[in-house]
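[audit] Reproducing an earlier prediction to check determinism. Same input, same settings, fresh worker. If the tokens differ from the archived copy the diff job will pick it up downstream; this log only records the rerun itself.
[audit] input (409 residues):
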Amino acid sequence: MPVDDKVGYVRPELDDLREQTNQLFFNEYGDGIDMQDNQISGMFAGVMAQQWDKLEQVAQGVCHAMLTLTSKGANLDDRAAEAHISRKPETYASTELQITGYLQALIPEGTEFSTDSGIVFATAADVTIATQSTIAGDNETTEPLTDDDGDALGQAAVAANALETGVDGNVMPNTIVNPEEAIDGFYAVTNPEAAVGGSAAETDQELQLRVVYNQINKPNSTDSGIETAIKNIAGVRDAHMVSNREMKTDEYGNPPKTSHLYVIGGADEDIAAAYLHYRPLLANTIGSISATATDIGGKVKTINFDRAKTVPIYITVSLKVDGTVFDTDNGPIAIKQNIVSYFDTLTMGEGVPYSKMFGPAYSQDGVKDVSVALGVTADGVKEQDISISSFELAVTSIDNVTVNFEEVS
């Protein structure tokens, strides 16, 4: 079990262990002993070397289990638990639905709506269409919202969650448009913002990085500490804190002496609880979302924050391929999935360089040349980087990615 003072534990190869075992026999019985594999002494040495190798495997595992960046599985969970961190479970995507219906229509909690691709969401509360809504008309006027027959229509917003966990639930804006059953008084539905928060269970690498991040920026009442605490919540992908400690409105429009938290993913109640626990005592929280949490003294407090806005990105990838090598059926699908996987790594305020699309585009065998175009609208793609504001998140989906290919010799 060699331990080097510079590189740490070094596990020897099986062949090296066999040579060392052979040398033990030579030292004990002399150089004349036959250590070939077809001799009893050689067979015995081979068995000893294999058992020695298993012991080295155990020693390596014990050594790695003591270190955050090399431990795996349950050992990593134990290391994280020492820092009061738990592996994030798989989570459900969530969004807000805008439901249009006739007056007094009741849409009960649990009503299901879906995308054209079959991703189903269920409403999280009862919602009633109480009053007629208005829409923008000509010359900056507004007009009453009606159906084709002139009957009054109203609109209401309600939270909704995907029925299945995972990133597939992170659908684009205006894609949840189908009712799964007949509903009295229902007229139309959509999701003005993309669904976010759907994720698979946290991987070892993701948990390792989060443990290290918590060591660097511990959860506390500083801006970075609050961000760390919020990011530890299941389903939260990113968080950004803006505190205005001046006696004047800041550059973002935040009033004096306020704290403004922006979050991607996670449940409102969980975010409010963590935010209340770590925020400075006299800080006034602001934002369009309000949730309640109970402080250490048992008092219920209202906590305000905002969700980051999602910015759908459209990508067109044009390929020149060797038709004898490139998989024309599965290659384009794999490229789309790789691009979507890249977007899953983006954080709030992180732009999209068009050069980052070349890696996924060249990931398939037979690709000889690539050109890429990006845009925030389907008809506005071009060779450009996409800039994102500090409180926005760039998102995409397989439906937003177009892959064209041309076979060349």
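[audit] rerun output stored. Observation attached for the diff report: The first strand starts at residue 3 and ends at 4.
[audit] end
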